[in-house]
Design goal:
The chain has helices at residues 11-25, 47-56, 72-79, 124-134, 149-159, 205-214, and strands at 2-6, 8-9, 31-35, 60-62, 82-83, 97-102, 105-113, 139-145, 165-169, 179-180, 186-188, 193-194, 228-237, 240-250. It is an alpha/beta fold. It has one domain (2-250): Purple Acid Phosphatase, chain A, domain 2 (4-Layer Sandwich), CATH 3.60.21. The strands form three sheets. A six-stranded mixed beta sheet has the order 5-4-3-1-13-14. α1 runs parallel beside α2.
């Protein structure tokens, strides 16, 4: 099973990069998953952004701390392969995991959100324990949407040997630590952002800079400009992870 995970799609530049590049490379992969929590103008997911990702070839869209910024997401969570963090409190709309099939094999995708410098959700460690006890699949991919690299690494080592791969998202900064952990789980701290890097984590430079200079709230504006497509390639075979490697494409 060859899988491509696309890092946080940020606003119009991110959607454009996915639309321009993914159709060309889509035949090389059995499954494509994208984090789309910033796809709608930089915050949240709406029907237009979801449709653009699906039409480009994305099989499943994950969310994050901006999951519920658009009301349209509630309908998507009810009917479409859209996943929010599994460690939201009981009763939260949607689901935190999804099962995908490709080539006669199954993939269980689970997302959890970190709690360090983030919203105080339920324990992601025990949430994953419960899901892994209840669900079975040939392969398990866990996305950890978290601010602290230490929390992502802690979750990865906690899951080492129990899941096929753990990928981090949220910081919009790609890391060069793609590796195999001691018990075989593939890991990368952050896949990075698909959007314009002439920005401050995808936001307009002047308004984001003003937050630091004035210590006051500023309007949120997603940056414009040429985009980079950041993703991670995963190869699974024989019930285990075979390889992990970052993938980068830059808009001409």
């Amino acid at each position: 099973m060859r899988l491509l995970f696309i890092g946080d799609v940020m606003g119009e530049p991110g959607l454009r990069a996915v639309g321009l590049h993914l159709p060309d490379i889509r035949p090389a992969y059995d499954l494509v998953i994208a984090n789309g929590e910033n796809a709608a103008s930089g915050k949240g997911l709406d029907r237009r952004a979801y449709r653009m990702l699906k039409e480009a070839g994305v099989d499943l869209v994950s969310l994050g701390n901006h999951a519920f910024d658009h009301k349209e997401v509630y309908g998507l969570l009810e009917t479409e392969p859209v996943v929010r963090a599994a460690n939201y409190p009981p009763g939260t709309p949607g689901r935190g995991w999804w099962r995908l099939e490709a080539g006669g094999e199954s993939l269980l995708f689970v997302q959890v959100m970190g709690r360090v410098f983030m919203d105080p959700l339920d324990d992601p460690f025990r949430t994953l324990d419960r899901i892994l006890e209840a669900e079975e699949a040939d392969y398990v991919l866990v996305e950890v949407h978290a601010e602290a690299t230490s929390e992502k690494m802690a979750l990865a080592h906690y899951l080492d040997g129990r899941v096929t791969a753990v990928l981090g998202t949220h910081t919009h900064v790609p890391t060069l630590d793609a590796m195999r952990l001691p018990k075989g789980t593939l890991y990368q701290t952050d896949v990075g952002m698909t959007g314009t890097y002439h920005s401050i984590i995808g936001g307009e430079i002047q308004t984001f800079l003003a937050r630091f200079l004035t210590a006051r709230p500023q309007p949120f504006r997603a940056a414009e400009g040429p985009a980079r497509f950041h993703a991670t390639e995963l190869v699974f075979e024989g019930g285990k992870g075979v390889s992990i490697s970052p993938y980068v494409w830059e808009e001409p």
